[in-house]
Input
Amino acid sequence: MGRRAIHPEKTKRLTRREVAAKLCVGESTVRDWEKRGDLTPFTDTNGVTRYGEAEVLRVAARRKGPGRDGEIAALAFSMFEARATMAAVVIATARTPAQVIKLYQDWKKMSAEIDT
Output
């Protein structure tokens, strides 16, 4: 599995240990997610394996979210982080604008809970 030297996300970058602590799992579980392709690592300029925070939150949503809703919330969050328009998010998620806003608010609340 190849690693990129520069990560495209503009979000915070977390070490394997930080990911494990945030999600209350062991570092070996984070490695397993990496092997399965659930998390894509990259190597920073110091040679340290890191993960984008938005991607970590998507994994958290899939673990914690009620099935498909967690995945849809992760998709909406990811698209908004990439500066997609509301129309694009509505089309991609097949939800109304009000539902998309609720998903995004729920996602932000969940990510705040994970950070504590």
